[in-house]
Amino acid sequence: MNTMSERIDTSAAGRLRAELESVLNRLRREEDVPHIALVTGDFFDVAQGVEQQELAHLTSSRLTERARRLRTALTRLQDGDYGLCSDCGAAIPPKRLLALPDTTTCVACQAQLERVGPR
């Protein structure tokens, strides 16, 4: 019989893998965005093309970062560290993990990080 912890880990692993697959699929679609030739068209066409490329780049960067965090969460799950705050070691509340499955910090440590800024 599975323990409650094993069922939670299995459920978390499934959610993390599904989310990672979704992010990777979105990244693949972003790669398919055609690059716009900047030498043709009037100023507004060029400006719109530049804006679309910058937006695609920003989206791709964010998706790449999200994929990295999800992979880290899967590694933490394998190592038995998933659900534990990486700063203080306290358990991260299950509702927080449901809302942010790739989180590595409890609410108190995250609030402290946001006050201090990135390390």
The structure class reads mainly alpha
SS summary, helix count: 4
Q: Give the overall average pLDDT.
A: 85
Q: What is the 3D form?
A: elongated
Describe this entry's structure for a reader.
The chain has 119 residues and is mostly helical. It has helices at 4-31, 43-79, 94-99, 107-116. The chain has two domains: 1-82; 83-119, no CATH class. It is elongated and about 60 Å long. The mean pLDDT is 85.
Task: Give a short summary of the structure.
This protein is an all-alpha fold.
Please write out the topology.
Elements: H1 4-31, H2 43-79, H3 94-99, H4 107-116
Tags for this model:
elongated, 2 domains, 4 helices, mainly alpha, 0% strand, 119 residues, single chain
